[in-house]
Amino acid sequence: MSISSLRRAALASSALSFVFVGAAIAQDAVPQDAAPPARESTPFTLETDQPRTAEQLAMQFDKADLSIKVMPETKTIDAVAVLDFTATAPLAAVVVELDTLLTVSSVQVDGRELPTDGWSNPEGRMTIPLAEPLAAGGTVSVRIAYAGAPRVAPRAPWDGGFVWATTADGKPWIATAVQGEGCDLFWPCIDHPLAEPARVDLHITVPSDLSSPSNGRFLGTVDHGDGWTTWNWSAAHPNTYAIALNIGPYEERTVQYQSRFGNTFPLTYWHLDSDDPAKVDALFAEFTPMMDFYEATVGPYPFGDEKMGVVETPHLGMEHQTINAYGNEYKLDGRGFDWLLHHELSHEWFGNQLTNRNADDMWLHEGLGSYMQPLYDRWLNGEAWMESSLVGQRKGLRNRFPVVSGSEKTEDQVYDGAIGPGNDIYSKGSLIAHSLRMLIGDEAFFRSVTRLVYGTPDPRPGQFQPRNGTTREFLSIVNEETDQDLEWFFDGYLYQAALPDLRQIREGDELALEWVTGSGDAFPMPVEVEIDGRRQTVAMTGGRGRIASPAGAHVLIDPDNKVLRRLEHIEVWRASGGRGG
Ligand SMILES: [Zn+2]
User: Fold this and answer.
1) Which residues of the chain have pLDDT under 50?
2) With 82 labelled, which of 98, 175, 276, 449 sits at a CA distance of 20 to 30 A?
3) How far is the CA of 344 from the centre of ligand 1 (A)?
């Protein structure tokens, strides 16, 4: 998702003023029913990607079977989750996360009902001691019945939960977006990127005049004849925050896509039935060429045995695996494609197929994902459009914290620009990827990306599974592909807040160049220099170089903007209040 810490700060202040306005109105209003006590998810629940317990480290998540009835009128859910685990080490208790806003009415272990004191969920981390500890290899099935009013998203997708909207013609339009808080806002799970269930089956019951597209393969509907219909779906290896409910008066548009890898799968768009058909047509026409770009650039669509799905949502967007959220309202921006659709689709490769091992490596999702839009500008319209897009990203960099810190982080610690890289994981990540591509060339760059995403340079449909990766792993792949040690590149760009600075000192008829990085380590990044129109490459061995440059000659450093570096004119502009990116 596209988030900027600036935007988050602005939203926080506007939310604050809304509270004050609300209080002023409440004082003047005639008291009606007593307001319910303020309810909020625990701070633990609102974080995601926190360290797992010893029990969770010993639990392999085989399957989650989720039956969720969604009641628009009361903004509540009534749900049963059946969770299957295999112990990978001796296991005395099952530990999952579930928001305490939801009331658990029943817990069964392997079909046996537990007394109410047979489990506890004090902070949103639910512990279910087992009567007999499991040995490694043993399996356990836990059934949890729960209900209530789930967290309402204060501002989806940046501050997430349920979105209970209505369409212009007054019909319920409901979505979930929980990237920042995690799956435990509405189903019991292990809220950690390394705890993906091998399969999630969904049985979503909604009013029969609404549709409920969701993750994975469609397994049909069951009309209960009482005004409620259940929509059945099954998803393999879903990213934990990617499970999403989407409910509304949707119409469906599907085309069978013929992949360049030989397989065929559906591209489906669920849009509101009230949308302008011409706008629907135009967006839907973008699906096939976007898919072909990604398959040509990165590799086979990772979920070709399910579908590519997009659903129109009341919030801007989110990378929900095989059911991407689209809420950009068909806005045109002159680039010839919908950037939001393209960005969210990138996450099927960068986020869902490749998932970071920890949020500290989130730039692998957002930076590589954000580089795909300038590359698509190039794919469609040529180099100038890519460069224009990269310049737009360049103007938004903050450089206050490193893109990667090197130690484990929660997602909030990464996204909050006051304490972490924030928006730099998007634009700076993209520009770093571009500099890497310019340095090592297309063949090594794209082979490295493909290996990172699939674990192999030659992925074939059906022959790979979603995987977890890290920045260090990406470095070692790049080193293998280039037969060089590019640690200086990764350290200088990703692990330092400051951008590498190319210092220039005139010494007689020569120009002396020196790279200065945040760490002070050598940064042997070659750079092209144009002296009075004649272009040369300075090798910058050891981070230093010299080039003949007669007095009065016009010097242009890096004429093609291949190298991300400190640019004083952007700093001056930002200091004057300029904002970009
Ligand atoms: Zn994103």
Assistant:
1) 2-35
2) 175
3) 6
Please give the distance, rounded to the nearest whole angstrom, from the Cα atom of residue 347 to the centre of ligand 1: 7
Q: What CA–CA distance (Å, rounded) separates 371 from 339?
A: 12
Residue reference for tokens 């440059």: 549
The Cα–Cα gap between 182 and 174 comes to 18
Expressed in angstroms and rounded, the spacing between residue 319 Cα and the centre of ligand 1 is 7
Measure 379 CA to ligand 1 centroid, in angstroms. 20
Tell me how far the alpha carbon of residue 286 is from its chain's centroid: 21
Ligand 1 centroid–CA 426 distance in Å is: 8
Which residues fall within 8 angstroms of residue 127, CB to CB, at 6 or more apart? 55, 93, 94, 95, 119, 120, 121
* Spatial contact of 490 and 518, defined as CB atoms under 8 Å apart: no
Distance 557 CA to ligand 1 centre (A): 32
CA–centroid distance, residue 365 to ligand 1 (Å):
7
Q: Which of 454, 193, 458, 473 is nearest to 319 (CA)?
A: 193
Alpha carbon of 346 to ligand 1 centroid (Å): 8
* Centroid of ligand 1 to alpha carbon of 369 (angstroms): 7
DSSP state of 225: S
Alpha-carbon separation of residue 295 from 263, 307, 310, 370 (angstroms): 12, 14, 17, 16
DSSP reduced 3-state for 268: strand
Give which of 197, 232, 196 is closest to 216, Cα–Cα: 232
**What is the pLDDT, as a whole number, of residue 126?**
98
161: left (phi over 0), alpha (psi -120 to 50) or beta: left
Q: What are phi and psi of 531, to 5 degrees?
A: -110, 115
Nearest Cα neighbor of 421 from 399, 406, 392 is: 399
Distance 109 CA to ligand 1 centre (A): 38
Q: What is the pLDDT of residue 31?
A: 35
Structure confidence at residue 39 (pLDDT): 79
Say how far apart CA 223 and CA 320 lie, in whole Å.
26
Measure 160 CA to ligand 1 centroid, in angstroms: 15
Query: How far is residue 304's CA from residue 309's CA, in Å, rounded to a whole number?
Result: 11
Q: Are strands 172-177 and 246-247 parallel, antiparallel or unpaired?
A: antiparallel
CB atoms within 10 A of CB 394: 19
Whether 343 contacts 317, CB under 8 Å: yes
Compute, in angstroms, the gap from residue 116 CA to the centroid of ligand 1.
Answer: 41
Q: What is the pTM of this model?
A: 0.90
CA of 342 to the centre of ligand 1 (A): 10
Q: What is the pLDDT of residue 21?
A: 27
Distance 75 CA to ligand 1 centre (A): 28
How high is the pLDDT of residue 166? 97
Burial of 122 (0-12, 13-18, 19+ CB in 10 A): exposed
Pull the structure tokens for residue 146.
């729960």
Each residue's pLDDT tens digit, 244-288? 999 999 999 999 999 999 999 999 999 999 999 999 999 999 999
For residue 246, give the 3-state DSSP assignment.
Answer: strand
How close is the Cα of 86 to the center of ligand 1, in Å? 32
How far is it, in rounded angstroms, from Cα 325 to Cα 316? 7
324 Cα: distance to centroid of ligand 1 (angstroms) = 11
Q: Cα–Cα distances in Å, from 532 out to 539, 549, 550, 552?
A: 19, 9, 9, 9
pLDDT score, position 279: 98
